[in-house]
Structure formats: structure tokens, C-alpha cells
Amino acid sequence: MRFSGIPDGMKPNRPPSEGLQFFGTLTFDARTKALTAALHNLEGRRLFSVELEAQ
Predict the structure, then answer these.
(1) How is the chain split into domains, by residue range?
(2) pLDDT on residue 31
(3) What is the pLDDT averaged over residues 18-27?
(4) Following CA atoms 10, 14, 17, 23 in sequence, which dihedral angle do they give, to the nearest 10 degrees?
């Protein structure tokens, strides 16, 4: 697993009212042809990202 947005030992699938909901973005760089996938919290703070190189 590369990313977990909940503390170790916490039961998964928490309701949105607990504030542990996330959203993802994909950004493509046409110059380098790299794709960056990122996960953000509800305030928009980036929590995790990974750059995927073109193949």
C-alpha cells in the first residue's frame, strides 16, 4: 500500500462527518510527458503524490 489516509488501527470507511474524506487530481506535463497523481484532504492540502513517467 502506498497511501493510507487513516491512522493505523482505525476502522476503514469512515463517514464524511469525521473529516477523513479525500479527492484526487491528475496533472499532465506536456513537456516531460509525465503524469502526476495526487491525493488531497478536504482543505485541499496535498497528502500524497506520485509522478508516473511516460513509457
Answers:
(1) 23-52
(2) 92
(3) 88
(4) 110
